[in-house]
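Minutes, project check-in
Item: structure for the 132-residue chain
Input as provided by the requester:
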Amino acid sequence: MVVTLTAHGIRGGELLVDSQVAVHQQVQILSALVEIHSRDENGGQYACSGTLIGPRLVLTSAHCFDIGLNQWQVEYQQQRYDVSEVGIHKDYRREEVFDAYWKFLLEIRLHHDLALIKTVKPMGRSLLNLPV
């Protein structure tokens, strides 16, 4: 499967890469699924999955970080990597929709549900062939 990605990064709504110099490349996604774990004294708990898009960048969902923890690790090819930054899309919004009469939760709507994770150390070859 071939996908076109734009190499923009977000940090609290700011671009990590200036939009004027964004890199556009076609990449072949092979096997780059990672697991995201909370980091604690018990070895961490599984929280979400993501896709490795660079040697230190993981694309994932913003709702993964709604649980209020601030220490994370990424597991890739049975190795754990500490996270240096988590960038949540600036327009991410979680909307809970309740029944008007009975007041029970009908659904949760997630808007702009995107996040980028940057690891301390590189995890492997870059799918985008971007510098580390």
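Outcome recorded: Residues 1-31 have pLDDT under 50 and may be disordered.
No further action items on this chain.
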